[in-house]
DNA-binding transcriptional LysR family regulator (Kineococcus rhizosphaerae), 293 residues
Amino acid sequence: MPTLRALELLVAVLDHGSLAEAARRLHTTPSAISHQLAALERELRTPLLHRLPRGVQATAAGRAVEADARRAVEAAAAVTRLGRAVAAGSAGRVRVACGETLTAPLVAPVLTRWRREHPDVVVELAEFVSADTLAAHLEAGRADLGVIPRPGSWTGEVHLVGREEVVAVVPPGHPLAGATTTTVADVAAHPVVGLTPGNGLDRWLTGLAADAGTVFDVVVRTRNASTAAHLARAGAGVAVVPVSALGGDPTGVVRFTPPLGRDVVVLLPAGGGDALAGRFLADLLAGGAPALA
Protein backbone atom coordinates (compact mmCIF):
# COMPACT_ATOMS: atom_id res chain seq x y z
CA MET A 1 0.00 0.00 0.00
CA PRO A 2 1.54 3.35 -1.01
CA THR A 3 2.19 5.68 1.88
CA LEU A 4 0.61 9.12 1.95
CA ARG A 5 4.07 10.65 2.25
CA ALA A 6 5.21 8.94 -0.94
CA LEU A 7 2.17 10.21 -2.83
CA GLU A 8 2.74 13.70 -1.46
CA LEU A 9 6.35 13.61 -2.69
CA LEU A 10 5.30 12.32 -6.12
CA VAL A 11 2.82 15.19 -6.51
CA ALA A 12 5.44 17.72 -5.38
CA VAL A 13 8.03 16.42 -7.86
CA LEU A 14 5.51 16.52 -10.70
CA ASP A 15 4.49 20.05 -9.73
CA HIS A 16 8.03 21.41 -9.54
CA GLY A 17 9.71 19.36 -12.25
CA SER A 18 12.72 18.28 -10.22
CA LEU A 19 13.68 16.45 -7.05
CA ALA A 20 15.87 19.35 -5.96
CA GLU A 21 13.10 21.96 -6.15
CA ALA A 22 10.56 19.64 -4.50
CA ALA A 23 13.06 18.96 -1.71
CA ARG A 24 13.61 22.68 -1.20
CA ARG A 25 9.87 23.35 -0.98
CA LEU A 26 9.25 20.45 1.42
CA HIS A 27 12.33 21.11 3.58
CA THR A 28 13.90 17.72 2.91
CA THR A 29 16.69 16.37 0.69
CA PRO A 30 16.62 15.08 -2.90
CA SER A 31 18.06 11.76 -1.75
CA ALA A 32 15.24 11.31 0.78
CA ILE A 33 12.66 12.00 -1.92
CA SER A 34 14.42 9.65 -4.33
CA HIS A 35 14.41 6.89 -1.72
CA GLN A 36 10.67 7.29 -1.07
CA LEU A 37 9.78 7.39 -4.75
CA ALA A 38 11.88 4.33 -5.48
CA ALA A 39 9.95 2.46 -2.80
CA LEU A 40 6.68 3.67 -4.35
CA GLU A 41 7.77 2.45 -7.78
CA ARG A 42 8.63 -0.95 -6.34
CA GLU A 43 5.21 -1.07 -4.70
CA LEU A 44 3.49 -0.25 -8.00
CA ARG A 45 5.92 -2.41 -10.01
CA THR A 46 6.50 0.30 -12.59
CA PRO A 47 8.59 3.46 -13.02
CA LEU A 48 6.70 6.68 -12.39
CA LEU A 49 9.37 9.19 -13.42
CA HIS A 50 11.94 9.59 -16.15
CA ARG A 51 15.11 10.86 -14.44
CA LEU A 52 16.58 13.38 -16.89
CA PRO A 53 19.83 15.37 -16.69
CA ARG A 54 17.79 18.46 -15.85
CA GLY A 55 14.72 17.45 -13.91
CA VAL A 56 12.17 14.69 -14.25
CA GLN A 57 9.13 13.84 -16.37
CA ALA A 58 6.22 11.55 -15.59
CA THR A 59 6.11 8.18 -17.31
CA ALA A 60 2.84 6.85 -18.69
CA ALA A 61 2.24 5.18 -15.32
CA GLY A 62 3.11 8.40 -13.52
CA ARG A 63 0.57 10.32 -15.59
CA ALA A 64 -2.04 7.60 -14.97
CA VAL A 65 -1.74 7.69 -11.18
CA GLU A 66 -1.26 11.45 -10.84
CA ALA A 67 -4.95 12.37 -10.47
CA ASP A 68 -5.61 9.73 -7.82
CA ALA A 69 -2.42 10.68 -5.98
CA ARG A 70 -3.55 14.31 -5.88
CA ARG A 71 -6.99 13.31 -4.61
CA ALA A 72 -5.41 11.23 -1.84
CA VAL A 73 -3.15 14.10 -0.77
CA GLU A 74 -6.00 16.61 -0.90
CA ALA A 75 -8.29 14.26 1.06
CA ALA A 76 -5.65 13.84 3.75
CA ALA A 77 -5.25 17.62 3.96
CA ALA A 78 -9.03 17.98 4.28
CA VAL A 79 -9.06 15.42 7.09
CA THR A 80 -6.35 17.38 8.87
CA ARG A 81 -8.18 20.69 8.45
CA LEU A 82 -11.48 19.25 9.64
CA GLY A 83 -9.94 17.46 12.60
CA ARG A 84 -8.18 20.62 13.74
CA ALA A 85 -11.33 22.69 13.24
CA VAL A 86 -13.37 20.24 15.32
CA ALA A 87 -10.71 20.27 18.03
CA ALA A 88 -10.86 24.07 18.03
CA GLY A 89 -14.67 24.03 18.17
CA SER A 90 -15.16 25.76 14.81
CA ALA A 91 -16.50 22.81 12.77
CA GLY A 92 -18.14 19.44 13.21
CA ARG A 93 -21.36 18.27 14.84
CA VAL A 94 -22.87 18.75 18.29
CA ARG A 95 -25.86 16.66 19.38
CA VAL A 96 -28.15 18.41 21.86
CA ALA A 97 -30.86 16.63 23.84
CA CYS A 98 -33.40 19.00 25.36
CA GLY A 99 -36.52 19.00 27.50
CA GLU A 100 -39.40 20.06 25.25
CA THR A 101 -40.38 23.19 27.13
CA LEU A 102 -36.78 24.42 27.27
CA THR A 103 -36.13 24.35 23.52
CA ALA A 104 -37.73 27.69 22.63
CA PRO A 105 -36.62 29.89 25.56
CA LEU A 106 -33.18 28.44 26.26
CA VAL A 107 -31.79 26.45 23.33
CA ALA A 108 -33.31 28.25 20.32
CA PRO A 109 -31.43 31.55 20.89
CA VAL A 110 -28.12 29.66 21.03
CA LEU A 111 -29.01 27.66 17.91
CA THR A 112 -29.84 30.85 16.01
CA ARG A 113 -26.55 32.48 16.98
CA TRP A 114 -24.55 29.36 16.10
CA ARG A 115 -26.09 29.15 12.63
CA ARG A 116 -24.82 32.68 12.04
CA GLU A 117 -21.45 32.52 13.79
CA HIS A 118 -20.49 28.86 13.24
CA PRO A 119 -21.81 27.90 9.78
CA ASP A 120 -19.54 24.84 9.62
CA VAL A 121 -21.08 23.32 12.76
CA VAL A 122 -24.12 21.06 12.44
CA VAL A 123 -26.37 21.12 15.52
CA GLU A 124 -28.67 18.12 15.92
CA LEU A 125 -31.58 18.54 18.35
CA ALA A 126 -33.64 15.82 20.04
CA GLU A 127 -36.49 16.72 22.39
CA PHE A 128 -37.78 14.78 25.39
CA VAL A 129 -40.67 15.01 27.83
CA SER A 130 -38.98 13.06 30.63
CA ALA A 131 -35.70 14.18 32.20
CA ASP A 132 -34.86 10.58 33.09
CA THR A 133 -35.43 9.42 29.50
CA LEU A 134 -33.20 12.21 28.24
CA ALA A 135 -30.49 11.28 30.74
CA ALA A 136 -30.63 7.66 29.55
CA HIS A 137 -30.32 8.87 25.93
CA LEU A 138 -27.24 10.89 26.85
CA GLU A 139 -25.73 8.08 28.90
CA ALA A 140 -26.09 5.75 25.90
CA GLY A 141 -23.86 8.10 23.88
CA ARG A 142 -26.60 9.32 21.55
CA ALA A 143 -26.13 12.99 22.51
CA ASP A 144 -23.21 15.20 23.51
CA LEU A 145 -25.06 17.25 26.13
CA GLY A 146 -28.50 17.43 27.68
CA VAL A 147 -30.56 20.47 28.74
CA ILE A 148 -33.17 19.49 31.33
CA PRO A 149 -34.50 19.96 34.83
CA ARG A 150 -32.14 18.26 37.27
CA PRO A 151 -32.70 14.48 36.96
CA GLY A 152 -33.00 12.07 39.84
CA SER A 153 -29.50 10.74 39.25
CA TRP A 154 -26.59 11.40 36.90
CA THR A 155 -23.02 10.07 36.99
CA GLY A 156 -21.50 12.66 34.66
CA GLU A 157 -21.00 16.42 34.89
CA VAL A 158 -23.88 18.67 35.98
CA HIS A 159 -23.77 22.41 35.21
CA LEU A 160 -26.44 24.65 36.73
CA VAL A 161 -28.03 27.08 34.26
CA GLY A 162 -30.31 28.58 36.91
CA ARG A 163 -33.50 28.07 38.85
CA GLU A 164 -36.73 28.17 36.84
CA GLU A 165 -39.92 29.32 38.54
CA VAL A 166 -42.97 27.04 38.58
CA VAL A 167 -46.37 28.79 38.54
CA ALA A 168 -50.09 28.08 38.46
CA VAL A 169 -52.14 28.83 35.35
CA VAL A 170 -55.84 29.37 36.06
CA PRO A 171 -58.85 29.74 33.74
CA PRO A 172 -60.62 33.09 33.27
CA GLY A 173 -63.16 33.66 36.03
CA HIS A 174 -61.60 31.01 38.27
CA PRO A 175 -61.66 31.68 42.04
CA LEU A 176 -57.86 31.99 41.94
CA ALA A 177 -57.86 34.35 38.94
CA GLY A 178 -56.46 37.74 39.87
CA ALA A 179 -54.85 36.46 43.06
CA THR A 180 -51.41 37.84 43.80
CA THR A 181 -50.11 34.47 44.96
CA THR A 182 -51.40 31.02 45.80
CA THR A 183 -50.28 27.88 47.63
CA VAL A 184 -50.08 24.21 46.75
CA ALA A 185 -52.95 23.53 49.17
CA ASP A 186 -55.10 26.21 47.52
CA VAL A 187 -54.51 24.72 44.06
CA ALA A 188 -55.28 21.23 45.36
CA ALA A 189 -58.75 22.45 46.34
CA HIS A 190 -59.64 22.83 42.64
CA PRO A 191 -59.66 20.52 39.60
CA VAL A 192 -56.16 20.25 38.16
CA VAL A 193 -54.73 19.64 34.69
CA GLY A 194 -52.04 17.07 35.37
CA LEU A 195 -49.13 15.56 33.50
CA THR A 196 -48.70 11.99 32.37
CA PRO A 197 -47.69 9.64 35.22
CA GLY A 198 -43.97 8.98 35.10
CA ASN A 199 -43.18 12.50 33.96
CA GLY A 200 -40.52 13.97 36.26
CA LEU A 201 -42.52 17.16 36.84
CA ASP A 202 -45.60 15.10 37.71
CA ARG A 203 -43.64 13.14 40.33
CA TRP A 204 -42.23 16.36 41.78
CA LEU A 205 -45.65 18.03 41.99
CA THR A 206 -47.20 14.93 43.54
CA GLY A 207 -44.48 15.06 46.18
CA LEU A 208 -45.18 18.75 46.86
CA ALA A 209 -48.85 17.99 47.37
CA ALA A 210 -48.00 15.16 49.75
CA ASP A 211 -45.71 17.49 51.71
CA ALA A 212 -48.66 19.89 52.02
CA GLY A 213 -50.84 17.06 53.30
CA THR A 214 -53.05 16.91 50.23
CA VAL A 215 -53.40 15.41 46.74
CA PHE A 216 -54.24 17.03 43.42
CA ASP A 217 -57.68 16.37 41.93
CA VAL A 218 -56.46 15.63 38.41
CA VAL A 219 -59.29 15.77 35.86
CA VAL A 220 -57.23 15.48 32.67
CA ARG A 221 -53.62 14.63 31.90
CA THR A 222 -51.24 15.53 29.08
CA ARG A 223 -47.63 14.63 28.34
CA ASN A 224 -46.65 18.23 27.62
CA ALA A 225 -46.50 21.11 30.12
CA SER A 226 -47.22 23.69 27.40
CA THR A 227 -50.40 21.81 26.51
CA ALA A 228 -51.34 21.76 30.20
CA ALA A 229 -51.11 25.57 30.27
CA HIS A 230 -53.32 25.85 27.17
CA LEU A 231 -55.87 23.46 28.67
CA ALA A 232 -55.97 25.54 31.85
CA ARG A 233 -56.60 28.76 29.92
CA ALA A 234 -59.37 26.94 28.05
CA GLY A 235 -61.11 26.17 31.34
CA ALA A 236 -60.13 22.54 31.95
CA GLY A 237 -58.67 23.22 35.39
CA VAL A 238 -55.60 24.68 37.08
CA ALA A 239 -52.20 23.74 35.63
CA VAL A 240 -48.93 23.88 37.54
CA VAL A 241 -46.10 24.37 35.04
CA PRO A 242 -42.61 25.84 34.67
CA VAL A 243 -42.48 29.30 33.13
CA SER A 244 -40.79 27.84 30.03
CA ALA A 245 -44.16 26.19 29.25
CA LEU A 246 -45.97 29.54 29.05
CA GLY A 247 -44.66 30.54 25.64
CA GLY A 248 -44.22 34.09 26.91
CA ASP A 249 -47.95 34.43 27.67
CA PRO A 250 -48.64 35.58 31.26
CA THR A 251 -52.43 35.15 30.95
CA GLY A 252 -53.87 33.43 34.01
CA VAL A 253 -50.51 33.08 35.76
CA VAL A 254 -50.45 33.09 39.56
CA ARG A 255 -47.21 32.73 41.48
CA PHE A 256 -46.79 30.48 44.48
CA THR A 257 -45.89 31.47 48.01
CA PRO A 258 -43.41 30.34 49.03
CA PRO A 259 -42.01 30.42 45.47
CA LEU A 260 -41.73 27.10 43.65
CA GLY A 261 -38.86 26.38 41.31
CA ARG A 262 -36.70 23.70 39.76
CA ASP A 263 -33.05 23.63 38.75
CA VAL A 264 -32.37 23.71 35.01
CA VAL A 265 -29.06 22.02 34.25
CA VAL A 266 -26.82 20.99 31.39
CA LEU A 267 -25.56 17.42 31.60
CA LEU A 268 -22.30 16.22 30.08
CA PRO A 269 -20.98 12.66 30.08
CA ALA A 270 -18.47 11.63 32.72
CA GLY A 271 -15.14 13.18 31.74
CA GLY A 272 -16.81 16.11 29.98
CA GLY A 273 -17.46 16.71 26.30
CA ASP A 274 -15.39 17.83 23.32
CA ALA A 275 -14.60 21.42 22.36
CA LEU A 276 -17.91 21.93 20.55
CA ALA A 277 -19.97 20.67 23.48
CA GLY A 278 -17.94 22.90 25.78
CA ARG A 279 -18.62 26.00 23.68
CA PHE A 280 -22.33 25.19 23.42
CA LEU A 281 -22.41 24.68 27.19
CA ALA A 282 -20.80 28.08 27.78
CA ASP A 283 -23.43 29.81 25.62
CA LEU A 284 -26.28 28.02 27.40
CA LEU A 285 -24.94 29.02 30.81
CA ALA A 286 -24.59 32.62 29.66
CA GLY A 287 -28.28 32.68 28.68
CA GLY A 288 -29.54 31.65 32.12
CA ALA A 289 -32.77 29.89 33.05
CA PRO A 290 -36.14 30.95 31.57
CA ALA A 291 -37.85 33.66 33.63
CA LEU A 292 -41.40 34.96 33.93
CA ALA A 293 -41.84 38.02 31.72
